[in-house]
Structure formats: structure tokens, C-alpha cells
Design brief:
Elements lengths: L3 E4 L15 H14 L8 E4 L6 H4 L5 H12 L26 H20 L5 E4 L21 H11 L5 E5 L6 H6 L6 E8 L23 E6 L5 H19 L3 E5 L17 H19 L3 E4 L9 H13 L9 H11 L17 H21 L6
Parallel strand pairs: 1-2, 1-3, 3-8, 4-5, 4-7, 5-6, 7-8
Amino acid sequence: MSDVVIPWSPRLQAYNPSTDTERPLRRGLAWDLLDASGLLASAAVSVVDPPRATDEEIGRVHSAEYMDAVRRYSADPIYATEVKALGFGFVPGMDTVATTGMHEAAADVCGAAIAGAQAVAAARATRAFCPAPAGLHHAHAARASGFCIYNDCALAVRELLDLGVERVAYVDLDAHHGDGVQWIFYNDPRVLTVSVHEFAYGFFPGTGALDERGVDAGLGTTLNIPLPPFAGDASFLAAVDQVVVPAVHAYRPQVLVVHLGVDVHHADPMAHLQVTLPALEHTYATIVALADEICEGRLLAIAGGGYNPTSLGRFWALQLGALAGVEVANELPAAWRSAAQSALDVEPPRTMRDEAEPQADAANCERADQHGLATVADARKLLGHEAT
């Protein structure tokens, strides 16, 4: 059993820079399941109220001009209709829109990630877990993107570096490329960024190709495994086991930061990958074992994306169980199922590991996995060129 700190507060629910009104509902149901399942009451788990990130802390990653714009649009979103707001990533009707109080809400999310990094670095816990809205990996140094205002993942990495950690590995397993983190550390040899994601023409954010490898002193410390739509367990697990694990082994980080977005699951509506629940549970165990082998268990897990309200909490529970080293009961609490059914007007799964077969065409999935396995093989060829 390992100690796990969860920096979380109900005020984090205020973060929603989009028109997705169900976002707080999904997160609330997921958090409630962690509580109802007894995981939050485990002797291995402690929930702490994180402070809001300061402007000085956020400014270690984001430009002053961008932060000034965010504060201005946060105070009154009407200002985001000015032309230069487009350059900062705020486009009416698109994914990320200016909302009242977004600066403060995003700073709260960043404060949670920073607190998680501090807990791991200070050995108050070998591990930390940040549930969504953590996972804002698309925010760039001077631009909002993909529902992300400030990049809490990058700020957690920066905090670790500022606390004296010499080498950090950031592994992104969300369905969408971890572009913001990659570009922020693209020339920094102290940070290895590895991303496994869906990659196709027109699929957000459109980056994350094999040839994105870093520049200058950071050349070789960026590694991408871009999988085609409808790739499933075979290529996803090969990417993790045959590329991510050996890449982290070769880099030898002192801390591992991982983005565990669950939109790779086949039932998620925001992506097309066909990864199953058993494969993801295997992946969580692999990541924990990797941290134990390489960096004495020091691991910051960021829950990230997930848009299926009947699945999100179950994946959070499996992630937290892996981090804490506790067995997650398979029976879903009756009270939670009742509350979920009332809130969603659909019958939720009956068990924690309830899993239907992927519905995508089998022939398409087989072709996608063949393509994906070829991509994994190409990514493996790059491993010998990683900076050490």
C-alpha cells in the first residue's frame, strides 16, 4: 500500500471554459464514485485543499501578455470579441471561449497540480493523483486551446524542476496529443515528453507526428506514437509496453508525471480509439510498476480527459486503486448507481469493470491495429537516439 495525496477542492468545479454544460456533472459523478467506493477513506489516501496558483507561479510557463489578456477577458468576456483575442486562442463558437472568472478557476486547477508536484518532490507522498479538471495539456505558453486556459501539467513539471528535480518524464496517454506540454519543453533536455494518441487529418490538435523530436539541447527528448483512428488494445498496449516503458527506462527520470486521459476508451464520444477497460487497467498497473522501478515510486498522475459520464468515475477509481495499491471492489455502490441514473436518465453500468464489446467495424479495427503496430515499430527505431 502506498501513500497517495489528492489535491482537490469543490471549487475546482468552477473550471469550464466551454459551452459543455455537462462537464461539471461528469466530474461530480466521478468524484462521488471515489467517495462512495470507499477509496477516499483508505488509509493510503489523503485529500488536501490546494492553494490557488499565484500569477508568479503561472508566469513560469505562460507569457505575461497572455496572462494579462486572460485576466481581462475573465473580468469581462465581452473584451474577448476583440480581434487580438483570436491570437490568444479565444474564438467565439469554438472549443475554448472566454468565461467570467476563468483566470481564477484555471489558477485553482494549476494550484492543485503544483501541490501534487510538491507532495511528490517533498516525499510527503510517493504519489499524487489529480482528478479532472486537471489535465489541461493543450494550453500553450501564449494561447488557449482545447478547453485549456493554463497548462497545469507543464506547471507541475516546472515546479518539480524548480524544486531541484533534474530529470522529469512526462507521459501523455490521452487520446489527444499532449501538444502544449511538448512545445513548452521542446528544447529542454531535463524533460522527456512521450505521447500516445490518435492521429489523423482533421483530428484535434493535428500535431504529434513521429518526426517531432525536440530541438537544440532538447533534440531526442520528444517522442510521439501517433495511432490511427480505430486502433485498439493491440497497438495501444504495444505503444505503452514497447515504446513508453523502454523510453522512460533509458531516460532514467527522478519523477514520472503521467496524463491518464480516458478518452482512448472505445465508448468515449470524443475520439475513435478502441481501447478496452481491461487494457487500461493493465496500463495503470504498468505505469505504477514503471515508477517503482525507475524513480522510487515518485509519480504524479493527472486524470485528464474523459467524456462518457457512466465511465469516467470507474476509470478514476481504477487509477486511484493502482496508485494506492488497493484492490478496487467490482460492485458499484447502489446509492451511486441510483444517483447516476437520476442525473443522467440512463442506466449506469452494474459493476466497476462492466465492459461492452467495441462497436466499431472489426475489419476497420484490424487494419487500424496493423497500421498502429507499424507505427510502434517505427517509434521503437527512434529509441536509440534518445538523449541521455
